[in-house]
Amino acid sequence: MRTRVKHNLGDLAAMKAAAIRFIHGFNDDDWDTVREVVASGFVFHHPVGGTVQAGPEGMVSTWSGFKTLSPDSWHPIPVMIAEGDHVAVLLPTYGTFTGHGDHAPPPTGGRLDYGMVNMVRFENGQLAEMWFGMDSLVEMQQMGVAPPAPTTQLSATAAANLSAFERTIDVEAAEVDTVGVFDDVVVVMGPPQGDPASSTRHLDVYRVEGEKVTPVHRHKMATKPPYSGDPGVDGDASRAVVERWIVEVLTGHDRDAVEGLVSPHVIVHPTAMPCEAAYYGPTGIVQWLDGQWSAFADLVIIDHFLVAQHDIAAVRWTARGTSTGDYMGLPATKEPVEFTGVSMYRIENDRIAEIWDTRNTLGILHQINPDIGAGGHHH
Hints:
Elements: H1 9-27, H2 31-37, E1 38-46, E2 50-53, H3 55-69, E3 79-83, E4 86-90, E5 117-123, E6 126-131, H4 136-142, H5 156-168, E7 178-182, E8 185-190, E9 200-209, E10 212-222, H6 235-251, H7 255-261, E11 262-269, E12 279-280, H8 281-295, E13 300-309, E14 312-322, E15 336-348, E16 351-359, H9 361-368
Parallel strand pairs: 1-6, 11-16
Antiparallel strand pairs: 1-2, 3-4, 4-5, 5-6, 7-8, 8-9, 9-10, 11-12, 13-14, 14-15, 15-16
Helix pairs in contact: 1-2, 2-3, 6-7
């Protein structure tokens, strides 16, 4: 593991300011600012494109090329933390696929909305190295070059509880981004994070019993300026929780350890959208993990680097396992598979309350079946 470089609070604030300028450069097509904050030897690591010795001009070329395909695309910055010489950011993308580009599929006119967790290393006040954490399969699905993800069907109980919830709570008036239903639990998040006017994100959990709807949990954070953690929470304590998670659960496959490490209302955002609730509670977490372990029975984290500030931690990681079961419809090969990702965690009362996860799903599929995902990347 790489040794962390210590910096004072002024240095951390300066790095965050440079990272924000970098992102706003993309949002505003301000390529001169991008050139200014990117180091001459800048390198980025992309899950599909690999390691690219980009420099400022290479980064401008990459981003301006994407803006050709999606001229209205932009990144809000809901969460950003810094430690040592690193900055980590939760960075969703919102845009429309309307443009034409060389070697790009024809535009669909549809939405390009997907999540990223990125990590950047700084040298002398400039971005020197960046790791893109994103699921390129989601991008390709939205661009129409990969089959769409299957829709999730609600159980009869969940559907009935959603109807009861909607009879009680005016979802439209509440400015909701997403509503997730997990049997007798409804998770509501908002306001719409793709709205540039949004400056907060709230997470509300309700329990539904017949026609009775009871609020049971709430978390709210300001996102302008980007949330940088609760100052009342010690970053080292957050780091310790996530390190235990990596060792005991992700590598040790200890299902019994899950309940002690996660909040009763934990949420998993598996493609890192700010308001994407795909799994809820300890039972949902185990379901999410079992889906991975059934496909790769010996899956372990072989390398990771962790950045923590207050109640937020971000990890870039490499995982390795053997294809031992079906994965997204592909049969097992009994061959080794290795892939990378970047994940962000929010800690609440010394337990994991949210996980924004990204992983190179397209790379996994390509290793299982080399005919899949042989093309290039866009973002």
